[in-house]
Specification:
It contains eight helices and 13 strands. The chain is of the alpha+beta class. It has two domains: 137 residues, PurM-like, N-terminal domain (60s Ribosomal Protein L30, Chain: A), CATH 3.30.1330; 139 residues, Phosphoribosyl-aminoimidazole Synthetase, Chain A, domain 2, CATH 3.90.650.10. It is globular, with a radius of gyration of 20 Å. The two termini are 33 Å apart.
Length: 306
């Protein structure tokens, strides 16, 4: 860090942050104060990104890392059809990276915050000789009559997903669009029974819904929207990448067949979405291959192992 170190950086960040009338106390005190509406629940999401796990240096630019650090939290807000309000950012900055890197990290984060009218309300900065660690916590509020959870899927529901899946390693893990606006629009248009963002991988995240809802599912391979660049020159098929790559940050949700047809006929959002299967009674998940063969589909995707 340059002369002034941590406190110079904090002063610089404070000067970059835009205000919000609900933020009655912002950066500069020991805690922030945010005025919430009495008729809405407060949503809280937090995610930690670590060098060597979620990105590598110098391959990833500071701005990319800052954007992703906030983006994954905005995606979690979207998964519950929530509206993000404020972000709190804590960083362990490697001494080797310097002050310009730290400013770039904030710039990438701040630009995305501005896109979604979320205010950077505080956090903590540390400098050390270890790897880069960034933790972001986002406060949000529910929209409509409730937060959309993972546990509401019902037998007979359509399983639907936004966007395309697979190949996030090619760079989309840093440039994805958090589906906040799309989730709120869907929540307003139909009754969303269950929803999750595709962060760990389609098959893994679908199993999260199935476990929480105590139901099973059948997917159709030919209906899954596979990205054109899903292949990464290994022994896995593009479908396997779509099912297990993760970090697509698309919305996976279930609705009644009637609402599913309504979404197809009158899409409330300007983004591709597909009907990829159905929820069934029982447990587990099967997939119908393009040749018609039915096989069990185990969860595949990212998992932190000890």
């Amino acid at each position: 860090m340059s002369a002034g170190g941590e406190f110079e950086l904090i002063d610089w960040i404070r000067a970059q942050v835009s205000g919000d009338p609900r933020l009655t106390i912002g950066i500069g005190d020991d805690a922030a104060a945010f005025r919430m509406l009495p008729d809405r629940d407060c949503l809280v999401a937090t995610d930690m990104l670590m060098e060597g796990v979620h990105f590598t240096l110098p391959e990833a630019a500071a701005e990319q890392i800052g954007r992703k650090a906030l983006g994954v939290n905005l995606s979690d807000m979207a998964a519950m059809a929530g509206r993000p309000l404020a972000a709190f950012v804590s960083v362990g900055l490697p001494r080797r990276c310097g002050a310009d890197f730290a400013r770039g990290l904030h710039t990438g984060l701040q630009r995305l915050a501005d896109e979604y009218s979320a205010v950077v309300a505080g956090g903590d900065t540390n400098v050390w000789d270890g790897p880069l660690v960034v933790n972001v916590t986002v406060l949000g509020e529910t929209t409509g009559d409730r937060a959309v959870r993972r546990n509401g899927a019902r037998a007979g529901d359509w399983i639907m997903v936004t966007g395309q899946l697979g190949g996030s390693i090619h760079g989309r893990q840093f440039t994805f669009t958090p589906r906040v606006r799309e989730a709120i629009a869907l929540h307003s248009a139909v009754e969303l029974h269950a929803m999750i963002d595709v962060s760990d991988g389609l098959s893994a995240d679908l199993h999260h819904i199935l476990r929480e809802s105590n139901v099973g599912a059948i997917l159709r391979a030919e209906a899954i929207p596979v990205a054109a660049d899903a292949s990464v020159n290994d022994n896995r098929t593009t479908l396997e990448h779509a099912l297990g790559d993760g970090e697509d940050f698309e919305l996976l949700f279930t609705v009644s067949p009637e609402d599913g047809k309504r979404l197809q006929q009158s899409p409330p959002v300007d983004v591709q979405f597909a009907h990829i299967g159905e929820i069934v009674a029982g447990a587990g998940c099967d997939i119908i291959e393009e040749g018609g063969e039915l096989r069990p589909l185990a969860p595949s995707g990212w998992q932190h192992d000890f």
